[in-house]
Amino acid sequence: MMCTPIACWVVNGTKKFWDFMRTHDSVSILIFNITRQCFILVKQFRPAVYMCELEQHNPQIFQDKDMNGCCYPRDLLPATVGVTYELCAGIVDNPELSLEQTACNEILEECGYNVPVANLKKISSYRSGVGVTGSKQTLFYAEVMDSMKTDIGGGKPEEGELIEVVEIPLEDAFNFSFDENLPKTMGVVFGFMWFQNNIAPLLQKK
Amino acid sequence: MMCTPIACWVVNGTKKFWDFMRTHDSVSILIFNITRQCFILVKQFRPAVYMCELEQHNPQIFQDKDMNGCCYPRDLLPATVGVTYELCAGIVDNPELSLEQTACNEILEECGYNVPVANLKKISSYRSGVGVTGSKQTLFYAEVMDSMKTDIGGGKPEEGELIEVVEIPLEDAFNFSFDENLPKTMGVVFGFMWFQNNIAPLLQKK
């Protein structure tokens, strides 16, 4: 994540400046475990979410900085306010891998399932954070079975990832989606709804 | 949009630094015009999306900077590659207004419809850009009629907004959603799907 670029444009004769953050494109994966009929999500502490909550409780928090421009927030709120439910996801930083292969690697790394590329179905792609990053996010659906679970998942602790794998039973998905006390990304709610419309009818037939 | 804060944390005995972007919380609104049975979206040029596309075509583009750290991208791609379809949306920057009132103001400003607060239905709230901003986004549904159209909309040109109001007929919504040649946010696709599940059955009964 780099925070520096500023682009200059001329719009209707006026010079305009935009600062924006360069980020990689990303993949995210709606994972459904057919053995136990549950969704597989990841839950992680998100500093940015935590800081938003902190600042809402204490708007002054960013005013005390050390000489490096760094602020040291004190623990004013429990860490749980920064914990977010998300789809398994990762950035696309290896141009030699297909999006599908990148997605499979993320599923193994974060959730511990070894999924063949053929099990992936592309849902669609979107632009995320259009005001800030504008990167492209491709959303996949992957069906997994207990027998594919070869690892515990959890991300790469050496890269600072502290990911918890969470299972949401199919019958709880609707209530989970609309429970605002459980912070989540739109991808989770969209994914569950897409599943209800596109996959659930097929499961019932099986 | 401020790009400076760096937060320092100690995780498992190691000092960690995160830079992140402070942004405001936001509202977005799925608007359906019942007079003409169409969705009302906004279409705008997004520098961040454009820059992503530019960089993909020319990875060197951010290397030439002037003494202010500013780069002047040359027009290597048509501006249309940066145009994105989005839900009407706005930031929450006036703490004296309710989220609903903020949403109504955005609908008038961007799309030209004067909607009573009572016409708004909250869908849910989400965390957006959890890796970068972590701000809370609240999604509403608003039904409008042609008779509520009191203004042309288009945003605030004096603040650099160049917004085009776009109508997507209900019968085209599905194909539009999954046409990847038309860049859009996940909010658009999620909103259309939510409408199909929650509002369309009621419309048919009417």
TrEMBL record, chains A, B:
It is found in: Cytoplasm. One of its GO terms (cellular component) is cytoplasm. Its EC number is 3.6.1.45. GO terms for biological process: nucleoside phosphate metabolic process; ribose phosphate metabolic process. The keyword Hydrolase applies. Residues 22-190 form the Nudix hydrolase domain. It catalyses: UDP-sugar + H2O = UMP + alpha-D-aldose 1-phosphate. It is an enzyme of class 3 (hydrolase). Its cofactor is Mg(2+). It comes from the Eukaryota. Keywords: Cytoplasm, Hydrolase, Magnesium. Gene3D superfamilies: Nucleoside Triphosphate Pyrophosphohydrolase. Its main location: cytoplasm. GO terms for molecular function: metal ion binding; UDP-sugar diphosphatase activity. Hydrolyzes UDP-glucose to glucose 1-phosphate and UMP and ADP-ribose to ribose 5-phosphate and AMP. The physiological substrate is probably UDP-glucose. Poor activity on other substrates such as ADP-glucose, CDP-glucose, GDP-glucose and GDP-mannose. Belongs to the Nudix hydrolase family. Homodimer. This is Uridine diphosphate glucose pyrophosphatase NUDT14. It comes from Microcaecilia unicolor. The gene is NUDT14.
